[in-house]
Write a structure and sequence with these properties.
The protein is built from 3 helices and 35 strands. The chain is mainly beta and about 475 residues long. It is about 5% helix and about 45% strand. Strands 1, 2, 7, 8, 9 and 35 form a 6-stranded antiparallel sheet that branches. The protein is globular and about 75 Å long.
Length: about 475
């Protein structure tokens, strides 16, 4: 689908009546084409499970306008004009946004759609958004169209933080045997392009790395699409002399993808005082060689970084992430997040939240829980986010996912997927990460919206019959 868009931005000074007008054309990204044309693991097809549930396309996704494209994101810095730039770095989070309806919330970053002037055209759609003097204030250097859900609260606000995650598919995997479920819940990385899943686990002084073929974008003659077709390709058992999980009844520890050519294992017991002791292992993805050791982290008071237990059902807890060579782990008192430099563990920084987090899981509470995760380069907790520059953004404490998440959360373009477990009820869920960029529109010169001005944005999106995508 080839589209073109034209935008008119009007700032009106409420005191003088002076109008500042900016007119721009945009480029269209691959976001909508991905959603229409990419189908990982055949998630849009009903493949098995009488009670499997999936999203209804009409009214949620279609018509494309004003659903898949029905929101607006405004940025303080320009955006890289690349069709695959669907999620900008978190150092440029939206300063304002709007959805396809009227903002009836207290969120002052959000404007409203003018439902009278916005309408379908013969070959497209005309969007009109309005911001009152108190709404959408800040520097605006770029504008992008997004989904209707992405325009409600962008990545999360003090009003609501659940709208970035649109639930699209639930697959019941409770009928899988224990071994199959363990493979899924121990997943540390999914290589979607190459149809691979890597699972890492610890038991009896050994770390086991298992490489599986998982049919994601091609399917073999003897494979199905119900998560039971995992073919073991390779196994490596790494005998440890130092690294170990902690605890007794419940093993405390976790494995994380460093996204730097290594998987990492960490294990600790929570400590309310003194210094933290952390066991660690680093495993090369290239040849499975590893190094291991122990850190003493002076004055660091940590919660456990995670835990994993599997008997009658998965009991998995995730409370840490790795980003850009650093481990981020929750503080014991819920008032901060520790940033630990993996190359220099003497370099430990406490990122203070500025408040005491409620520290609840991102899904519902139960046998398996995720308290800290990362999408793109944005770290997300129950009532806060941490951008790539380590700035803390307070948000509403909102349940993001509707079940206990038992695995880490894996991302492929606009899609998020995870394995969920709640006392013997296991499922595989898929979500769309909704604050994507459907278009990129950099302003020739940045403008400033303040409390003396109202703002009106008219965005006309039409089907391009000229063969151009810009």
């Amino acid at each position: 689908m080839k589209l073109k868009g034209e935008m008119v931005l009007e700032l009106t000074d409420k005191n003088t009546g002076e109008v500042e007008t900016v007119k721009e054309t945009n480029m269209i990204t691959n976001a909508v084409n991905h959603l229409l044309g990419i189908n990982p693991a055949a998630l849009w097809y009903k493949t098995s499970g009488e009670y499997d549930a999936s999203l209804m396309w009409n009214d949620n996704m279609l018509p494309i306008c004003p659903n898949m494209i029905g929101g607006l994101l405004l940025f303080s810095k320009t955006l890289t004009e690349d069709a695959d730039n669907i999620y900008p770095s978190s150092d440029n989070l939206p300063v304002a946004y709007a959805s396809n309806n009227v903002n009836s919330t207290a969120n002052t970053a959000r404007g409203s759609m003018n439902l009278t002037e916005s309408k379908a055209l013969e070959n497209g759609y005309k969007f009109v958004w309005e911001f009152t003097p108190s709404q959408g204030n800040g520097t605006i250097a770029a504008v992008g169209l997004t989904s209707k859900q992405g325009g409600e609260n962008a990545w999360g606000s003090k009003v609501n933080s659940s709208t970035p995650y649109l639930y699209i598919r639930n697959i019941d995997i409770g009928n899988l045997n224990e071994k199959k479920q363990m493979q899924l819940f121990h997943a540390v990385e999914i290589d979607f392009e190459n149809n691979l899943l890597y699972a890492v686990s610890y038991k009896d002084s050994a770390v086991t790395v298992e490489k599986y073929r998982m049919p994601l974008f091609n399917i073999g003659l003897n494979e199905k699409l119900d998560d039971s077709t995992l073919t073991l390709l390779d196994t490596h058992a790494l005998t440890c002399s130092t690294f170990t999980f902690c605890g007794s009844y419940t093993p405390y520890g976790t494995f994380l993808d460093g996204r730097d050519g290594y998987w990492y294992g960490f294990a600790n017991e929570e400590n309310a005082s003194g210094s933290a002791t952390m066991y660690w292992i680093r495993i090369s993805k290239a040849d499975y060689s590893f190094t291991e050791g122990t850190w003493t982290l002076p004055n660091a008071k940590l919660q456990i970084v995670g835990s994993g237990k599997y008997e009658n059902y998965p009991e998995m807890v995730h409370k840490s992430v790795v980003r850009n060579g650093c481990l981020y782990a929750l503080s014991y008192d819920n008032k901060g997040v520790y940033k630990i430099n993996l190359a220099n563990p003497a370099d430990v920084t406490l990122l203070k939240l500025g408040f005491t987090s409620a520290n609840k899981p991102l899904g519902s509470s139960g046998s398996s829980e995720v308290y800290l995760t990362m999408v793109n380069d944005l770290i997300i907790g129950w009532d806060f986010m941490i951008d790539v520059n380590d700035n803390v953004i307070r948000t509403a404490g909102t349940q993001r996912f509707d079940q206990n998440i038992g695995s880490q959360i894996f991302q492929y373009r606009e899609y998020l997927t995870c394995f969920c477990s709640s006392y013997g009820t296991e499922s595989h869920k898929w979500f769309i990460l909704t604050p994507y960029l459907a278009s990129i529109n950099n302003l020739s010169s940045a403008v400033v919206k303040n409390a003396d001005k109202t703002m009106k944005i008219t965005y006309t999106l039409t089907e391009d019959t000229s063969g151009s995508t810009s």
